[in-house]
UniProtKB/TrEMBL annotation, chain A:
Organism of origin: Lactiplantibacillus daoliensis
Pfam family for this entry, one: ABC_tran
UniProt family annotation: Belongs to the ABC transporter superfamily.
Gene3D superfamilies: P-loop containing nucleotide triphosphate hydrolases
Protein name: Amino acid ABC transporter ATP-binding protein
Localization, UniProt: Cell membrane
UniProtKB/TrEMBL annotation, chain B:
Protein's UniProt keywords contain NADP: no
Subcellular location, record wording: Cell membrane
Extent of the signal sequence: 1-29
Main location: membrane
Protein name, per record: ABC transporter substrate-binding protein/permease
NCBIfam families, sorted: HEQRo_perm_3TM
Gene source species: Lactiplantibacillus daoliensis
InterPro entries cross-referenced by the UniProt entry: AA_ABC_transptr_permease_3TM, ArtM/GltK/GlnP/TcyL/YhdX-like, MetI-like, MetI-like_sf, Solute-binding_3/MltF_N
Length: 246, 492
């Protein structure tokens, strides 16, 4: 058996008195697509941010390819973080740079890739997300769907081993959700390991390998999509599904 | 006599008195090598405030603005008799004593009276000139006024803080006395009939009257001790051997009546060449120099102030261990302190205070002080700018593997700067105006130059109008240029 890409053990995170994550122990295997669903405020974003240490866990262990991140120094954390691409609900493109520059920045400044190579790679990625004709545009001129696809291309430019998505389509107009989900589906097909927080149940069903249902600071249920949607095991999940599927 | 003395400066002098005696003065008193030192150095630096014809003033000699006057003649003779070269350093009268104390100059010759108060802090030579006071009036009033007692019910003017100002206050009855800092302003007030007479030193009065046909002079008849009407050369306390040697020169000057016979007439000639053409166009070179220095100071200070500002802003935002907390406190304290003290004091502190340890030229001191000052303000703008950048930007950059430093440099700061560009532009324009403060330490920027032109031409308003227009052209051009860049950035 291969080593898990991500291993979380007894992870807990509090903000002051607010215990957001209480005790989480899970694994992500290579090539798996994990879909995290759950009620708003249940700690999904916090969980995702603990995986690449944007948020420092209060206790517990987060390991990437067998290496415990919580014990590493800042520099090693920085270099491990580039292996975990992250896509945000709000895109977070750099507004003062063109699309191409957004994608080239990290490879050039972090990896030291030269300009020509970075440019070539950026164009490849833009073609992959269908936006090469927008290479010289500034982010403000893009639609939400286009911006999110650029953000995905930007994360991919660091050649990550795993991609973390935090509600990538929640800020989009409905007609643009599809173009982003298509790109994500392509990625999954190519074998990318992914952890996706989303409310898109269709995507969860068709692309997800496992559903992690998260509420009240715990992963309440870890199930296959078929079972989770047809026969949820916990009351909490049943309750949640009945509300969103109405 | 010139005896201007701001309370502020008095306090600063007092501060230095506390420091200096322990270091230099006592050491000198123990082993007086003052004469030997100067002769070894080969240069004697004379401090003077060249806005006081005919004692000392700026004149255009062979197309170059030069300090001339009877005091300069005296300085040259002193240097010659010592067998060294004379170097003249100009600064405001208020700054002279501190400059002497802190070693910026070796002696002061600037129409200075050897008053008992000053004697406590410096050593004076014998007096080289015995002056007196006259009152300048409008020629049309010649019949009305005879001396100081004729002004009952009227108004007399004098330079604030001078001996004649105090005399006018104490020795007249029923007369209101109005003080102004500049001689040219007083004459202007006289001509516009806001004053009935202006008390000033005899040579100055003579200069004004001979250059302005509408003015006349009458004796003041002030009752004065001789120390208040005479001029002497000041040296650092404890320079006995040097003072003794220079006294030989001074005594000879007095015996041969060199001041009356030679020095004053020579100075008068410069006054004439100086005032043949009092049109502002004639002084374009002086104003150009002023613009040049104003721009040098502003541009350098903006540049260094910006760098200091970034460092301070980052230090103020440092979070973490004891070291970073200490850094944050230090930066905060610095910013608060700088913003809570006048820039003028900071300029004097850098020039005179740091001058105790390193000999910084006035221009450099000015740039350092203004940069340090501007840095504190810029830091606050930058901090605001950094806070205005969405946290999502930092998160995105960090998630791409960028370090804190790179995130700051490539992602946050460029956006922060764009947001605060208008404030930074304002700071630049403020600095163009505020750089005028360094005129007090003798940097030849616009204000300083305009004062020189005013005392040279005996014209009070014209030079002010000229520099007002010049300042406006500078700030207006600057704001156009800044707007251009702002618009360009908005396209991004
Ligand atoms: N930086 C923070 N400081 C304090 N509380 C936070 C912070 N981030 C999130 N929380 C709190 O943690 C809880 C979970 O938030 P979040 O992880 O965003 O949930 P979800 O993504 O599932 O909606 C919320 O109560 C939120 O207020
Ligand atoms: Mg969330």
């Amino acid at each position: 058996m291969t080593k898990p890409v991500i291993e979380v053990e007894a992870l807990a995170k509090s903000f002051g008195d607010n215990e957001v994550l209480k005790d989480i122990t899970e694994k992500v295997e290579p090539g798996q697509v994990i879909v995290v669903i759950g009620p708003s405020g249940g700690g999904k974003s916090t969980f995702l941010r603990c995986l690449n240490l944007l948020e420092t866990p209060t206790s517990g262990k987060v390991a990437f390819e067998g290496q415990d991140l919580t014990t590493l120094d800042t520099k090693s954390v920085n270099s491990l973080r580039e292996k975990m691409g992250m896509v945000f609900q709000g895109f977070n493109l750099f507004p003062n740079m063109t699309v191409l520059e957004n994608i080239k920045l990290a490879p050039m400044k972090v990896k030291g890739t030269d300009d020509a190579a970075a440019t070539k790679r950026a164009h490849e990625l833009l073609q992959r997300v269908g936006l090469d004709d927008h290479a010289d545009a500034f982010p403000t001129s893009l639609s939400g769907g286009q911006a999110q696809r650029v953000a995905i291309a930007r994360a991919l430019a660091m050649d990550p081993k795993v991609m973390l998505f935090d509600e990538p389509t929640s800020a989009l107009d409905p007609e643009m959700v599809g173009e982003v989900l298509n790109v994500m589906q392509e990625l999954a097909k190519e074998g990318m390991t992914m952890v996706v927080v989303t409310h898109e149940m269709g995507f969860a069903k068709s692309v997800g390998d496992r559903i992690w249902f998260m509420a009240d600071g715990y992963i309440q249920e870890n199930n296959t999509p078929e079972n989770f949607f047809a026969h949820p095991e916990t009351e909490r999940a049943k309750d949640f599904l009945s509300k969103i599927l109405m | 006599m010139k005896k201007k003395y701001g309370l502020l400066l008095a306090m600063i002098v007092a501060l230095f008195m506390l420091v200096v005696p322990m270091s230099t003065q006592h050491a000198q008193a123990a082993t007086d090598d003052s004469l030997e030192k100067i002769q070894k150095k080969g240069v004697l630096v004379m401090g003077t405030s060249p806005d006081y014809p005919p004692y000392e003033f700026q004149a255009t000699v062979n197309g170059k603005s030069t300090v001339v006057g009877m005091d300069v003649k005296i300085g040259k003779k002193v240097a010659k008799d010592l067998g060294v070269k004379l170097k003249i350093k100009s600064m405001s009268f208020d700054s002279l004593l501190v400059a002497l104390q802190t070693g910026k100059v070796d002696m002061i010759i600037s129409g200075m009276n050897p008053t008992p108060a000053r004697r406590k802090n410096v050593d004076f030579t014998h007096t080289y000139y015995q002056g007196g006071y006259d009152i300048v009036i409008n020629k049309t009033d010649t019949a009305k006024y005879k001396n100081k007692d004729s002004f009952s019910g009227g108004t007399l003017g004098a330079q604030t803080g001078t001996t004649q100002y105090n005399a006018a206050k104490k020795q007249t009855k029923n007369t209101s006395v109005k003080g102004m800092t500049s001689q040219s302003d007083l004459i202007l007030a006289l001509q516009s009939h806001k004053l009935d007479g202006v008390a000033m030193e005899k040579p100055s009065a003579e200069a004004y009257v001979s250059n302005n046909k509408q003015l006349a002079m009458i004796p003041s008849d002030f009752n004065m001790s001789s120390s208040a009407t005479s001029s002497a050369i000041a040296f650092r306390k404890g320079s006995t051997s040097l003072v003794n040697k220079v006294n030989v020169t001074v005594d000879q000057i007095k015996k041969d009546k060199l001041v009356k016979k030679d020095y004053l007439p020579a100075a008068g000639k410069y006054l004439k060449t100086n005032t043949v053409n009092t049109s502002m166009g004639h002084y374009w070179k002086a104003f150009l120099t002023g613009i040049e220095y104003t721009l040098i100071i502003t541009v350098c200070s903006v540049f260094f102030g910006f760098i200091i500002g970034i460092i301070l802003a980052l230090a103020r935002m440092a979070k973490g261990g004891v070291l970073k907390t200490a850094l944050r406190w230090l930066a905060t304290a610095y910013v608060e302190f700088i913003r809570g003290t006048p820039m003028m004091v900071q300029v004097m502190f850098v020039y005179f205070g740091l001058g105790l340890f390193v000999n910084l030229p006035a221009l450099t001191s000015g740039i350092i002080a203004i940069s340090l000052n501007s840095g504190a303000y810029v830091a606050e703008y930058i901090r605001g700018g950094i806070n205005s950048v969405d946290d999502g930007q930092t998160e995105a950059a960090r998630s791409l593997g960028m370090s804190n430093g790179k995130t700051m440099r490539y992602v946050v700061l460029p956006q922060a700067l764009k947001n605060i560009w208008p404030s930074l532009g304002n700071e630049f324009i403020t600095l163009i105006k505020d750089s005028s403060i360094v005129s007090i330490i003798g940097v030849t920027e616009l204000i300083y130059q305009s004062n020189i032109v005013r005392s040279d031409t005996y014209r009070g308003v014209a030079p002010i109008v000229v520099i007002m227009v010049l300042y406006f052209i500078l700030t207006f051009t600057a704001s156009r240029i800044l707007n251009y860049f702002e618009r360009k950035m908005q396209h991004d």
